[in-house]
Amino acid sequence: MRERARGTPAAPEKKSRDVQLADNRRAFYDYSIGDKIEAGIALTGTEIKSLRAGHVNLRDGFVRIENGEAWLRGVHISPWTHTGHDNHEPLRSRKLLLHKSEIAFLARGASEKGYTVVPLRLYTKQGRAKV
């Protein structure tokens, strides 16, 4: 019977498919960054294709809390060029997918004078778009 040698390396970890799609470097310059929260984004098919192609601008983006929902505004996702019709509006409001407690936390922070909720980066995590 063979014994397994001690100190043998474990199986190699699978490569992460997380890809950073956009970065809001201007926000780090203009704002003092406090807490960070990860949120999913509700997107259409052509928006996902444009994101993966890198056609997104976060510079003017901000978050508004309305009726207990968080909305991402001012983020420009260019229309997908390989479709004839039924393309998305580049500057439309996009719903952020958050728990109620996270939305309440953001609402408390945004209601204080001088505080703003801004997107810092846009990336995919296990195939899902996150901000």
Which tags fit this structure?
Small Protein B, Chain: A, 20% helix, 131 residues, 3-stranded antiparallel beta sheet
With strands numbered from the N-terminus, the spatial order across the biggest sheet is: 2-7-5-4
How does the major sheet shape up?
4 strands, antiparallel
Our count of helices gives 3
Beta content comes to 25-35%
How would you classify the helix and strand content by structural class? alpha+beta
Question: Which CATH first-tier class would you pick?
Answer: Mainly Beta
Morphology call: globular
Topology, number of strands: 9
What order do the SSEs take from the amino end to the carboxyl end, as H and E?
A: EHEHEEEEEHEE
CATH superfamily: Small protein B
Q: Which CATH architecture would you pick?
A: Beta Barrel
Taking all residues together, what is the mean pLDDT? 84
Poorly predicted spans? none
The CATH topology turns out to be: Small Protein B, Chain: A
Number of domains: 1
Whole-Å distance between the termini? 53 Å
Calculate Rg over CA atoms. 19 Å
Structure description:
A four-stranded antiparallel β-sheet has the order 2-7-5-4, with helices on one face. Strands 1-8-9 form a three-stranded antiparallel β-sheet, with helices on one face. The protein has a two-stranded antiparallel sheet with strand order 3-6. The protein is of the alpha+beta class. It has a single domain, classed as Small Protein B, Chain: A, CATH 2.40.280. The longest helix has 12 residues. The protein starts with 18 loop residues before the first strand and ends with a strand. The chain is globular. It is built from three helices and nine strands, in the order E-H-E-H-E-E-E-E-E-H-E-E.
